[in-house]
Amino acid sequence: MTRFTVNNQPVQYRMDPQTPLLWALRDASNLTGTKYGCGRGDCGACTVIVDGEAVRSCTVTIAQLEGSFVTTIEALSRDRSHAVQQAWAAENVPQCGYCQSGMIMAAAVLLDKNPNPTDADIDAAITNICPCGTYPRIRRAIRHAAGIASGSERIAAAPPPGIDPEDAARAVPALSPPPRARKR
């Protein structure tokens, strides 16, 4: 049996010790925010945080994690209050969205280690692949998240913590229908 902590909960997996963390998280713990991309550690869709480091969960076995602390996208902040999640929404980063949870986790680790990264720092730390090519928005979002985390910037795009997105959407006044074209 393999024991470690996932999202602040002790877990004990009764699986083959050589099972990749990705499949333990998705299949045994039902934490499906961690995505399967390439299965080789190249794309980064499966990135999680292990003991403060961004780790491609498809490349590490559960046996290697004995006693470790793992954080998945589900526990970064359940209410989207984490600066990276707020900035991701504000900058409209996701296109297809498949790689985004891994990108967000890698960005969170980067900002924990370097609260004011340059574009070169971002490019060196975020090696995840985005098939849609949203890299300029990713860089902007990471710089924006750094400002949010430092308190020098505020965010207005995402609902504040504790507000259901559907409630926030209903609070927006309805737009008037477009004027009808005049007949000539």
Automatic annotation (TrEMBL):
Residues 151-184 are annotated as: Disordered. Gene3D superfamilies: 3.10.20.30, [2Fe-2S]-binding domain. Pfam families: Fer2, Fer2_2. InterPro entries: 2Fe-2S-bd, 2Fe-2S-bd_dom_sf, 2Fe-2S_ferredoxin-like_sf, 2Fe-2S_ferredoxin-type, 2Fe2S_fd_BS, Beta-grasp_dom_sf, Diverse_Oxidoreductases. Residues 1-76 form the 2Fe-2S ferredoxin-type domain. Keywords: 2Fe-2S, Iron, Iron-sulfur, Metal-binding, Oxidoreductase. It comes from the Bacteria. Coiled coil: none annotated. Residues 175-184 have a biased composition (Pro residues). PANTHER family: BLR6218 PROTEIN, OXIDOREDUCTASE WITH IRON-SULFUR SUBUNIT. This is (2Fe-2S)-binding protein. It comes from Sphingomonas colocasiae. The lineage of its organism: Bacteria, Pseudomonadati, Pseudomonadota, Alphaproteobacteria, Sphingomonadales.
